[in-house]
Design a protein that fits this description.
Elements (H helix, E strand, L loop, with lengths): L3 H4 L8 H7 L2 H16 L7 H25 L1 H4 L17 H22 L2 H25 L3 H21 L4 H24 L1 H7 L4 H4 L2 H21 L8 H22 L3 H6 L3 H29 L6
């Protein structure tokens, strides 16, 4: 099957796993982890039940965003190798079901978060869903090579949301956690785009590699990596940082910048000669980059609770 209309006809009833796949569970796992760290590093105690419900609502809201994204992007998902197996283009779930699921989970998660934590957190969650589903998916993704840069804000909200659930407000620490993910997003996705080059072009998405060219993309990867480093390291000097986090940030960002320099210095002939080894290496680094930064923040919070962490 090559067109969407043909793939809308499924020969079997969708299973629970098909609906769960609409929620982008791998993305949801990062959302849950960073939101949890944002909550536990906050300078207030949160009842375990309230914390659990808050993180659950943030996870469900992220899943709602994923379902709405798959609903709108079903046409281009059929033209990309890495997305052709998703529930809608493969014919396991129809678009109307994805839309209904996304809208229902959006309303459920925001209202429950407002009741369980506070309405500022609920408002930010609602804005995050709207930003990802409408601003990024429906507008930016198909209209500008800056789609990843601006759209990255949606993925950067979870730790800030966790902080707001705990404190009822925002602070420098919350915004720096937001900025850490926001600045990480472009080099993460552009490194991927450099070695899955046919997918985005086939789908007609103006990814940086397609709209501005590969040399420009390589320079942008390096530029954002250099901007990312001071944000990540600077977080170590705030109230939620400490020696452990700072050491981890310095090492991780030194490695990341070195990898970005290697990517920026190459041309396509060099990259093709070793099957994009440097680009794939930087992308792999980016996969554990955020996890280790936020794990270090969590470790600092744990040490602080024992009287050892922080400055």
């Amino acid at each position: 099957m090559t067109d969407l209309s043909a793939q809308d006809v499924s020969t079997q009833e969708p299973g629970l796993g098909d609906y769960f796949a609409l929620l982008k569970p791998r993305v949801m796992s990062l959302v849950v982890f960073t939101a949890f760290i944002g909550l536990v590093v906050a300078p207030v105690h949160v009842h375990p039940f309230i914390a659990f419900v808050s993180i659950l609502c943030i996870a469900v809201g992220a899943g709602a965003s994923g379902a709405l994204n798959m609903w709108w992007d079903a046409d281009i998902d059929t033209r990309m190798r890495r997305t052709a197996g998703r529930p809608i283009p493969s014919g396991r779930v129809n678009k109307e079901e994805a839309l209904a699921l996304g809208l229902a989970l959006s309303g459920f998660s925001t209202v429950l978060l407002g009741l369980a934590a506070n309405w500022l957190a609920a408002g930010i969650l609602a804005f995050t869903i709207f930003f990802y589903a409408v601003v990024y998916t429906m507008w930016l993704k198909r209209s500008t090579p800056q789609n990843i840069v601006i759209g990255g804000a949606a993925g950067a909200f979870p730790p800030l949301l966790g902080w707001v659930c705990a404190t009822g407000g925002v602070s420098l620490e919350a915004w720096l956690m937001f900025a850490l993910i926001f600045m990480w997003t472009p080099p993460h996705f552009w490194a991927l785009a450099l070695f899955v080059k046919s997918d985005y072009g086939n789908a007609g998405i103006p990814m940086m590699t397609e709209a501005k060219g590969r040399p420009a993309t390589r320079r942008q990867v390096l530029a954002y990596s250099l901007l990312l480093a001071p944000v990540a390291i600077g977080l170590g000097f705030t109230s939620i940082g400490g020696p452990l986090y700072l050491a981890a940030a310095v090492i991780l960002n030194a490695r990341f910048v070195i990898g970005a320099v290697a990517v920026a210095r190459r041309d396509e002939t060099m990259a093709e000669a070793d099957s994009y080894a440097a680009e794939k290496g930087l992308f792999k680094q980016s996969l554990y980059y955020l996890f280790l930064h936020f794990a270090a923040l969590g470790a600092e919070a744990g040490l602080a609770a024992l009287g050892y962490g922080g400055w």
